[in-house]
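Researcher: Here's the sequence for the chain we discussed earlier.
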Amino acid sequence: MSGFLTDAYLWFKALHIISAMSWMAGLLYLPRLFVYHVEVHAESQEARRFSVMERRLLRAIMNPAMLATYIFGVLLLATPGVVDWSSGWIWLKILAIGVLTGSHHAMGKWRKDLAEGRNTKSQRFFRIANEVPTIAMITIVIMVVVRPF
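Model: Thanks. This is the structure I predict for it:
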């Protein structure tokens, strides 16, 4: 098995990056849709349109991209010699992935609340929430590329 993982390493790495980019696109765009959604009347045609857009983004792009990111990431972690588990960078990266995953699930709940007319969050809340995945993404890229510790 380790021979297969080593031989396929660059493919897994490329697919992991592609998946993570797709996931990040959704994590950065969905809160922006929420900002626009909050601006319209809850029973309006525009609100229904935003609900459809949000649902499709989450289910058709974000959920599969998150799953693929995890699958290819685990395959990379399982490849012999790729990660020195005594280094601090990998643990901070894993923590930042947890933040992305938590953000993803929170956005799923907020999407449902908006679709059902139960939203209690403001535009400002969603604007701030939009920054959380950005900070996590910056942390992940620096940890993987620079490996500062």
